[in-house]
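Input:
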Amino acid sequence: MRRILVTCACAIILAGCATPESTKNYKLELQAGNIPAATERAVKESDLNKADQPEDLLWSLEAGTMLRYESLNERSNRMLDGAEALMKDDDTRGAVASGGHQVAAVLTNDNVLPYSPNVYDTVMLNTYKALNFWQLGDYANARVEWNRTDDRQRRAAEHFESEIAKQRDEIAASDNADLVNRSLAGSNAIFEKAGVDVEQWAPYAGYINPASLYLHGLYFLLNGESKADYEKSRVSLERAFALTRNAQVKADLASARKPSKIKPAVWIVFENGMAASKRELRVDLPLFLVTGAMHYTGIALPMLENGVAAYDHIAVGRQQSQHLASMDTIIRGEFKTRFNAILIREIIRATAKTVMQKQLNDQNPWLGLAAAVAQAASTQADLRSWLTLPHDFQLLKVPYPGNNVLTLTLPGPETEIEIPLPQDKRPVLVYVRALNTAAAPSIQVLPSRVASL
Amino acid sequence: MNTRSLLSVTTLCLALAGCVTPTHYVDMKNDNVAVMGLDYKDFENAATELVNQMLASPLMVHPKSNQGARYVLTVSNVINDTAQRIDTEQLTKKIRISLLNSGRFVVTTAVGLNGPEDAMTAKSRQLKSSKMINQKTVKKNGRVIAPDFSLSGKIIQRNNRVDSSTQQVDYYFMLTMTNLDDGLAYWEGEYPIVKRGDNRTVSW
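Output:
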């Protein structure tokens, strides 16, 4: 009996909670529009060490975004620098170093592993850092971050190419290749069961984030220092237009071809709502009904839920913001590509746990029962993701107002916000971030480096 | 403590010590450790090579050099167009030192693209209204020398995949000497650095 209790206790300790209390509270604070509390929580959970460096990657991403929201751009960048260092550790973590974690993950679930960033996380990290530096007027470091964003996007397509090949090899090498293949063949049925039309989950070509690409192009259009910079801008805007077909991107592309004609104006990028997040899809199979030898087996898979927009659009006068890119599309595309790997891992894990349960059951039926309880408790999907990424990006360009004050209108119960612009008229980017309607949007004015060309 | 315990403790200490790299000096002449980013060796090599190219150009010699005349140089803008957070002064300072030591150039700190590097040249002229200062020692106006040449440039980075586990990073140090009299580039030089390494992560 003692062994049973010990096994149960181990199961609960090792279960690797799918949604910890801190995440639940963070979500509640965000929903209530309590930005200071959410920011404080994210900073605290980022686990800053004595050198002021975060040790928790996912929370440091949340903290970096929230500090940006509060216009604490310098602190945001310090936090995101720390997050980038942790990403590098994740990239280079050797198989031996992560061996213990991997074993624990097979015995329980992926929540015991350190958070491994998605490719879109890495692109958005450098995009936010670049915007922070731009906001701070540090154009030299903004350039470095845009170059990093560009390299991250280049690596994305390569990454998924090798990821798909790796999945293929893993299946071929698996002892249970037949079982895995049959399960994968049924993966679309899993999506159907969750009410998801997976055919709609195509990523943008090359797994590119068109919003980052556009902002890269816009930065060099407005802050270009040489012909080479305008060429960079042209290339990015050309690719962004091919992906988005947005009319303003097309107009900016024309400007990048003749940069000397850029006049003072206001570009407004609206980062809208909260991104697609994960929920658990559980398939529990009480196997004793079938075999009599085992009590439980089952799998738990993450499934995506659509993100939520804060507003349908924002407006200046009669001009409304237009759709630029969907973060949900980027997230879904990457999730779809990774889903087979997640499914394979979950099947391998369920098989290992079920075999162990059977062996214990053969020794002692009570032990078998305890193992079944442990298995049921530890079968949890990894639902972690960067919650404060947006649902979508929208774009609007308006003439520079004569009185140097931009009046922005939020729909719904119509709200007008007055935004002071630089007195010396020049091209500026107004960056509007709205998480939801409960919180006032964060608005930052990013002036171009030179008055005008 | 018996010998066995002592040995065990020593072994444990050695094992633990093995996890940390002790601080030590690097023999800079025989340092073969390479990083994917840019380090002191890259700046040293780039500066040496570019200065050698510059000094080999006949257009970089003052016509009255045999009478001790030297060109006056100002450093305008060297853009860091890489993905590395570096200070371009790591390059320009080395170049300035070498050019100064060559006896062909002097560098002005009184004039710069974003204001003077050392504002004291202008500020010291303001002492002419000070009762405290011996007015004979106050520097006179009309004596500061305008630059003849401007040094500008760029450091760029290009990343490419070699195979699934290897990436190649090319850095180009590109400099231009512009004659401020006619606005023509009298000298241009380029120094490439190519590195191959781990493709699991980014190059910075």
